[in-house]
Amino acid sequence: MPDRPTHEARILVVDDERDITALVAYHLAKAGYRVTTAGSGPSALEAAAKEPPDLVVLDLMLPGRSGYEVLEELRRGEETRDVGVILLTARKEEADRIRGLAGGADDYLTKPFSPEELVLRVAAVLRRLRAPAATAGGSVLHVGPIAIDRAAHQVTVGGAPVELTRIEYRLLLLLAERAGRVQSRPQLLESVWEAQADIQTRTVDMHVQRLRTKLGDAGAQVETVRGFGYRLRAPERGGRAR
Question: Which terminus of the chain has a lower count of CB atoms within 10 Å, N or C?
Answer without folding.
Answer: C
